[in-house]
Design brief:
about 220 residues, alpha/beta, Zincin-like, three-stranded mixed β-sheet, about 20% strand
């Protein structure tokens, strides 16, 4: 069984803490007087957890690699991955068949901008429709919907009840999109993240915690 490599940080703490950072390093925080043999025993007992965390980091690294916009690469749309095919037709620059994305070879040099423009167009139609439907069905009133280009802030609700959502949400599964919309609509009644706010969200979406967790764990993928 291979030895587990780790970086040890000792302090006056009473318990042992394990952490796998974004670089794939295992960091062990341990009490000053705890023997090294005891630390290694703890690592052995948590071997499966460590392996899972290291696998997650490697998966994240793979997904965060810059897109090459080459044939066979996968691109997200509404939570599903679709392969990219390269066409020798000059027009359109990009089209979606429901099964794959087809990009004209002539436009590969501008592929990122072309994809983002396509995503924004889909997001404007889809998100505005969902905001309206969820607002009407749940009795919310908002002033206006706006599409944003935020990278990590999925949505916001202004004091004047303007709902803003990033176009990047169009890459997420529909149920995740609905959670973000419900979250922002709830702010039209409860401005802060108070107990009343979360009670309101839970009443509309009992499993909101799972969806919020999904965003925390997978939000990094919603980019192109």
């Amino acid at each position: 069984m291979p030895e587990i490599k780790f970086r040890l940080i000792r302090s006056n703490r009473r318990t042992v803490g394990l952490e796998v950072n974004d670089q794939g390093d295992l960091i062990v925080r341990a009490p000053n007087r705890l023997e090294l043999s005891a630390i290694k025993s703890i690592l052995t007992s948590h071997r499966r957890w460590i392996a899972r965390k290291l696998s997650e980091v490697e998966r994240r690294r793979q997904l965060l690699r810059p897109k090459r916009f080459a044939e066979g690469e996968n691109f997200l749309y509404l939570g599903r991955e679709f392969p990219l095919l390269i066409s020798h037709e000059t027009r359109p620059a990009l089209r979606f068949t429901g099964q794959s994305f087809i990009l004209s070879a002539r436009w590969q040099g501008q592929a990122r901008e072309i994809f983002q423009k396509w995503y924004r167009k889909q997001a404007q139609a889809y998100l505005s429709d969902r905001v309206m439907k969820l607002a009407v069905s749940n009795g919310f009133r908002f002033k206006k919907f706006r599409l944003s280009s935020a990278r990590t802030r999925w949505g916001s609700c202004s004091a004047k009840r303007m709902i803003s959502l990033t176009w990047r949400l169009i890459l997420a599964p529909p149920e995740i999109i609905d959670y973000v919309i419900v979250h922002e609509l709830a702010h039209t009644r409860e401005k802060s993240h108070s107990r009343d706010f979360w009670t309101l969200v839970a009443g509309l979406m009992p499993d909101y915690r799972q969806k919020r967790r999904w965003l925390k764990q997978n939000g990094f993928m919603l980019n192109v």
